[in-house]
Design goal:
homodimer; Arc Repressor Mutant, subunit A; 2 domains; globular; DNA-binding; about 150 residues; alpha+beta; Dna Ligase, domain 1
DNA sequence: GTTAGTGCAAAGAATTTGCAAATAG
DNA sequence: CTATTTGCAAATTCTTTGCACTAAC
């Protein structure tokens, strides 16, 4: 978390952008909830709950900025709103998500098992893979165990 | 294509839904453009161009129906609108998409190389994979060859 | 002080909904 | 004939934008 915040300050400086209250706040919330997948609205609501008066427009603008600076990743599910999560600096690519079709939980998955696939894509399609977004849909352990 | 249309008629009958002009038309457009990735608006525009007077609401309702009947798949890109494509009845899962970050082309990829990954997910997370959505981002062959 | 960032309210885009009229079975 | 579907326009949802005001550097 420290690392990302420092990283953020550097990236802002490099682009002559300003380190403002709302920006610090929003990055902080994401850093404290790296396991969650928050929408702009979630973050806005969280801020208001903690008496941080930040407009929703600023939340959107900050999330767009953080995504451009490659500090967060957007996840696009089927419900029409984007969810964000802090990027793991150790990751080469984005990590994968398991989405339970019963409880709608989103489970993070760190394994990077797509290297072989990416190599084959390069050979067969001449396509040079830079990033990937993998979502696996199914039934999670807990839901699978319930005998409804 | 014949197969899908028949399949469609059966599925409608099974659910006491009606086979209407707009529904046939829309499925037909998708069947004739299985390699494309059309938005509701694309389809609506196509229909109007061919003097089929169908309201945009009907297009949305029909696409939702076709998706529920598992005849088409929705692809959720970063531009905020859903694109649809006829499902290939031969496929176990959805196929993958390569998205070029330069020309924004979407390339279909039939290989199903995720079986090993899915097996490991099942072992490690107890998660039973039913479907997947894989998008690989990068630079396509043509864009990679351009020396701009 | 200058430039970038913010909040607000209004605009925009994609999609959904309510309802009376139309149509398939 | 009856239940489903349609078209239209209005509503909704998520997101973006314009602009005067504020805050970083």
């Amino acid at each position: 978390m420290e690392k990302q915040v420092n990283n953020f300050e550097d990236k802002l400086r490099d682009n002559s952008l300003k380190l403002t209250g709302p920006r610090q706040c929003i990055l902080n919330y994401l850093a404290c909830n790296r396991d969650k997948h928050l929408t702009a609205d979630d973050i806005h609501r969280l801020l208001l709950q903690n008496d941080e008066k930040v407009g929703i427009a600023t939340v959107y603008r900050t999330l767009a900025l953080l995504e451009k600076l490659e500090l967060i990743n957007g996840i696009y599910l089927e419900d029409g709103c984007v969810r964000y999560q802090l990027m793991d600096t150790k990751e080469k690519h984005e990590h994968h998500h398991l989405i339970c079709e019963k409880c709608n939980r989103i489970i993070d998955m760190q394994d990077d098992l797509l290297e072989r696939l990416e190599r084959q894509v390069n050979e067969k399609y001449g396509f040079c893979v830079k990033n990937h977004k993998v979502k696996l849909y199914g039934i999670c352990k807990e839901c699978g165990q319930m005998k409804d």
